[in-house]
Amino acid sequence: MTLAPGLRAQLLILVEMSDTAQEIGSGDVPVLATPRLLAVAEMATLQAVRPHLAPGETTVGTRVELAHLAASPLGTHVQITTELTEVDGRRLVFGFEARDERTVVGRGTIERVVVDRAKFLDRATR
Questions:
Q1: What is the pTM of this model?
Q2: What are 27-76's pLDDT values in tens digits?
Q3: d(CA 79, CA 37)
Q4: Partner of 50 at 20 to 30 A CA spacing, among 14, 81, 82, 94?
């Protein structure tokens, strides 16, 4: 494992109907859903560290703090940037920020833990 603070990743999405609170069921308005924002941020954390994990390893989420600060309507581009800020053994802490063309729409922290994929799945299915 070559995990160290400073690893970064960015993902860019275009808000489509399938990304909205109305579609996901977390609300009834056609704007970027908070759960979708979180899912993309988590995807970016995995993208940041995946090349640095040993074969057979992955990360799983354990804790999230998220402030969804502004609405992003259909057709808006939202860029999510994550950065690994802390490595404590297998525990990883990321900061993230999401911006659209106008403003910061969300920010927060995500904690993940490095696990052996096969062992994790074995325990999860018992």
A1: 0.93
A2: 999 999 999 999 999 999 999 999 999 999 999 999 999 999 999 999 99
A3: 10
A4: 14
